[in-house]
TrEMBL record:
Pfam families, per the entry: DUF2397 (PF09660)
Record InterPro entries: CHP02677 (IPR013493)
Annotated protein name in UniProt: TIGR02677 family protein
Length: 517
């Protein structure tokens, strides 16, 4: 019951945090909310009253950044209360000198920005400043990360030795160690962010169907030069980084102890305190997973290599399609752009005539009643209405003919019943195999398993071994449906032999335990 309450509490906290983004919705007064949040995040420890906020918003109203009348005190108070309800602002209070009750009400209630709201607004301002083009990958950070990891191993050894020479030497060595760890994780965070942004841009590019000559030349350079350089740099430095991380993993406990990780200070970790990166084992595991593959968990370097191969293939196909004219007929892109220019320069009356002449669509009489609901109405401009998808054949060749014929829907009850029977038979065999393993839980090495039971055991053993970082680690996994649990532990010199009708499975230096929940 307690775990369910904790889960509900986490879900409620996540929902409350999502309310912090409510003021960014394109709704009424969203520009006012944005100006208020920028005002509170412009300075450190901002503590403002409704009157001070209204005075600051007056300049924004004169410049046209917010709607007229939004700087009035009564409107500002309503906006501030709404931001407090969403969790972006919190109440503060201090003594004021006022000449009237109204002035006291406007000045005594103070507002401050919450920590998470500062992050939201910072991300929003950064997002609004980001250009639409590709973001350059910080390739120079890769050799810096490799050098930083090598130097970190030397500094860690010096810090351990400095503890024997007194508190002063130990403090200086620990400060140098913390400085290198913080720099290392900042460099990796910047590298990972630039890689994600660059490949997100590639994902947007590969969906393009029409490219002009300048874009084709730019994407050719992107393919031949930049992507190749990025991948080569990553693959060049990854082996050295992986070896250094493996070496540091053996002394990770000492590193966390010197950095003051809560697990080694004897004090309970305060979840409300956000520590710097690199002060927990999870941070180092995340850094390792970015560069090093694990069984069942490919690294981000592997994902980057695979994404590069897919992006290059897709971009080459787009360039080939664009240069080939989209098929046996010449492309219609230039004609469509010329027609769009005519529409842009035409008057409303001329645009109607142009539309009828270009597409052969004239005004029509509706002899049937109007539909009950339509996506558009007479109050919605065409630029704000729903976007209609245009097929590739229409965009490239102006051909609206259908391709192929609609396939018939075949109802095959015999095949359906045979597939269902096969699925029931497979489920019954797995249930029997799990029951056999559960009955042999206490005598696994003396029992003789069937091929199905050995297959289920090997499947669970693979999942348990994938959790290990080193050979000395253990692992545990369970069948999520039937609850069979398999635990593996490392024990030097012990050999586990599991016999079956098809052969014997031998595991060296390993102990296997099976239990049924």
């Amino acid at each position: 019951m307690e775990s369910e309450q904790q889960a509900r509490g986490r879900e409620g906290a996540a929902e409350r945090r999502l309310h912090l983004y409510a003021y960014l919705q394109p709704r009424e007064h969203h520009r006012t909310y944005l100006e208020i949040m920028r005002l509170f995040t412009a300075t450190l420890l901002a503590d403002l009253s409704a009157g001070e906020v209204a005075s600051a918003l007056a300049a924004a109203e004169r410049d046209g950044r917010i709607d007229e009348g939004e700087s009035r005190v009564e409107n500002v108070i309503a906006r501030l209360k709404q931001l407090v309800e969403w969790g972006n602002l919190v109440h503060g209070r201090r003594e004021v000198v006022a000449s009237s009750i109204t002035e006291f009400q406007h000045g005594s209630v103070r507002y401050q920005v919450s920590k998470l709201a500062v992050r939201v607004q910072r991300d929003v301002d950064e997002l609004l400043r980001v250009p639409e083009g590709a973001r350059e990958v910080s390739r120079e950070l890769l050799p810096a990360i490799e050098r930083g990891l090598r130097q970190l191993g030397v500094t860690l050894s010096e810090a351990v030795m400095a503890e024997r020479h007194g508190p002063a030497s130990a403090r200086r060595a620990t400060e140098a160690l913390a400085e290198q760890v913080t720099t290392l994780f900042l460099q990796h965070a910047e590298l990972a962010a630039t890689v994600r942004d660059f490949y997100a841009y590639l994902g947007h590019v590969v969906t393009r169907h029409h490219l002009d000559p300048d874009e084709i030349a730019g994407f050719r350079n992107l393919l031949v030069e930049y992507i190749q350089m990025v991948v080569e740099d990553v693959l060049r430095y990854t082996p050295a980084i992986g070896e250094t991380l493996a070496t540091l993993a053996r002394s990770r406990s000492e590193l966390l102890r010197l950095l003051g990780a809560p697990a080694f200070t004897g004090e309970s970790a305060d979840e409300r305190v956000e520590r710097s990166r690199g002060r927990s084992a999870a941070d180092w595991q995340e850094l390792t997973d970015w560069f090093v593959d694990r069984p069942g968990r490919p690294s981000q370097v592997t994902a980057l290599r695979e994404a590069t191969a897919r992006a290059i293939g897709a971009l080459l196909a787009s360039v080939k399609r664009a240069t080939a004219g989209g098929g046996p007929l010449p492309g219609r892109r230039a004609d469509l752009l010329k027609l769009a220019g005519w529409f842009d320069a035409a008057t409303p009356a001329r645009a109607h005539r142009l539309y009828a002449a270009a597409f052969g669509l004239y005004s029509a009489r509706h002899l049937l009643p109007a539909p009950e609901h339509d996506a558009d109405d007479e109050h919605t401009p065409w630029r704000d209405g729903p976007v209609t998808d245009v097929t590739v054949s229409v965009r490239s060749r102006g051909d609206r003919g259908a391709r192929g014929r609609t396939s018939r829907i075949v109802d095959d009850p015999i095949t359906e019943q045979s597939l269902l029977a096969e699925a029931r038979h497979a489920d019954r065999r797995r249930a029997e195999a799990v029951a056999e393993l559960a009955s042999a839980a206490g005598r696994l090495e003396s029992a003789v398993l069937s091929p199905d039971a050995l297959g289920v055991l090997c499947e669970l053993l693979t999942m348990a071994m994938a959790q290990r970082e080193r050979v000395e680690d253990g692992g545990v996994t369970a069948d999520p449906v039937r609850g069979l649990r398999v635990l593996i532990e490392h024990r030097a010199g012990h050999t586990t032999r599991i016999a079956s009708t098809g052969g014997t499975l031998t595991l060296n230096d390993t102990v296997v335990a099976v239990s049924a929940s």
